[in-house]
Amino acid sequence: MNDMVQFSAECPTCKHDRPQIGYSREELIQLLEAGADLEAYCSNCDETWPVSVEERADIARALERSK
After folding, report:
1. Longest CA pairwise span in the chain (Å)
2. Residue 14 phi/psi, 5° resolution?
3. If one looks up domain 4-65 in CATH, what number appears?
4. What is residue 42's predicted lDDT score, i.e. its pLDDT?
5. Across residues 60-65, what is the average pLDDT?
6. In whole angstroms, what is the distance from residue 24 CA to residue 32 CA?
7. What are the distances in angstroms from CA 35 to CA 1, 8, 16, 40?
8. Which residues, in sequence order, are CB contacts of 27 under 8 Å at separation 6+?
9. Model confidence over 1-57: pLDDT tens digits?
10. DSSP string, 16-64
11. Per-residue pLDDT, 39
12. Which residues contact 29 (CB under 8 A, 6 or more apart)?
């Protein structure tokens, strides 16, 4: 069950939702529970940023639904 989970995060520069891949389900759960930053990346803008609180909540809900 170490498959990578895909979620999207809005780039603060171009304002487009960008797919994010690179975290396993277990890793995402641990980071969310610990309150640790989740980093997102936009390849068009070559920018990284912390995922917003609202997006973190969306990710947590999606992970809960996919149990």
Report:
1. 34
2. -95, -10
3. 3.90.1280
4. 98
5. 92
6. 12
7. 22, 18, 25, 15
8. none
9. 458 889 999 999 999 999 998 899 999 999 999 999 999 999 999 999 999 999 999
10. -EEEEEEEEHHHHHHHHHHT---EEEETTTTEEEEPPHHHHHHHHHHHH
11. 94
12. 63
Distances, alpha carbon 2 to alpha carbons 8, 23, 24, in Å: 19, 9, 5
Look at strands 39-42 and 17-24 and give their pairing.
unpaired
What residue spans define the domains of the chain? 4-65
The tokens 């980093």 sit on which residue?
39
**Predicted local distance difference test score (pLDDT) of residue 2:** 58
* Identity of residue 52: S
CB atoms within 10 A of CB 10: 17
